[in-house]
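hiii, so i know i said id send this last week but things got crazy w the move. better late than never?? heres the sequnce for the chain we talked about at the cafe, plus the structure i predicted for it. fair warning i was half asleep when i ran it
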Amino acid sequence: DWDGALEHAASVFAETIREHGPDSVAFYISGQLLTEDYYAFNKLARALVGTNNIDSNSRLCMSSAVVGYKRSLGADAPPCSYEDIERSDCLLIAGSNMAYAHPVLFRRLEAAKAARPEMKVIVVDPRRTDTCELADLHLAIQPGTDVALCHGILHILLWEGWIDRAFIDAHTEGFDALKALVRDYTPAAVADICGISVENLQTCAELIGQAPSFLSLWCMGLNQSSSGSAKNSALINLHLATGQIGKVGAGPFSLTGQPNAMGGRETGSLANLLPGHREAGNAAHRAEVAAYWGVDALPEAPGLSAVELFEAVRTGKVKALWIACTNPAQSMPDQQKIHAALATCPFVVVQEAYATTETCRYADLLLPAAGWGEKEGSVTNSERRVSHVRRAVPAPGEARADWAIVCDFARRLERQLRPGRPSLFDFADPAALFDEYKALTAGRDLDLSGLSHALLDRLGPQQWPFPAGASAGTPRLYGDGVFPTASGRARFVADAYRAPQEKREA
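okay and structure toks below
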């Protein structure tokens, strides 16, 4: 029963931690959890266990976008709204088959294009997908050459004078270094690298450079790459060079790969992050969160990212592993190593809605979790909009919500690791978790301290920032040209194109 299962888990985790230290255990979670589930797991790992070994399958899809936004704009925050898709004059889709991967959003784009045929759509994809059917221009580039393409477009924008020099001077830094880099990315050279015609490259640059508003949308084709961060920054460079950010119909807009990958980033559910877009490696950030949680300190040792985590399991450094709402035995790269890791790990807990996943075969303890429509909480979508998820049907059998499983386990583990002290996990419902979490965002770039489940029920889904006292969310960021960097300026990132490894080895 639940009591026996969670007492057993708590005993094994406590014994492992006492014998081998807090970094001998790890948690691997998922972009399909609700925000409250994420927050409970984070607090469990960092405040109670004392490890940063908590990572998410979002590492495999969104971490490049996180890095791209942070180093170019200063914060992990998509600055656009979905309505910008309907209001843009020129829309670039890169590394995304929206028609299949984001069908609801693509229907909106189709309707907008039908209503305004003068809207230009550019699709960058080595394949000719269904999304290309809507395109005015399809650039079938060689796989992995996106950085060269963006540098080549910028080269032409500079040559033709299609940049916003006033915006660059007033609101950015690092442009001269990028300008020097892209000097060598001539149309002929880039066309050769990318396997496209010079004419199509020139047309693409002209459509972007002459458009009153320019919006870009991208997904896994850019992110899931050894040069994913460089691809993100190269695309964002185009927006900064043309001043196409912070206004209607414009901006760099990443499309998340999972329903609540954004909620995971916000709550700090990657090994290097903490709640409220804080950094686990920043001592001041750790002190802020530790003080709020009422613990002496948060762990300083860097946590293991997804691939590192499973390698540490395989080599015996991680001896107890908790997997929730994800199936690494089918979804992680280098599957032979993943299966070897799971087979040799002394204790594997799998918290799952489906007993038939490949990962469940390796579970020493299999916990039945409620599915998406069987629990309550919140999610954040690609446009920073927080929605209250309501339960549609009761969970079957003895399945329980993820947050409830985590908190029940944590209270039992507390009795072994910090007996006699007040519980850190005294939450009666998801709303209580959300209310504790939101205070950690107050004054941060993602401030959602004015939100609550009750307010979302009353006003409907809202975009952050939504600080305390606000009456509406924020549709666009950086309209004032001020960015959350040390200087207040956005940063051009000058990363040279590097051929994909397969091409370098050929």
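btw The chain is about 40% helix and 15% strand. thought thatd interest u
miss u guys!!
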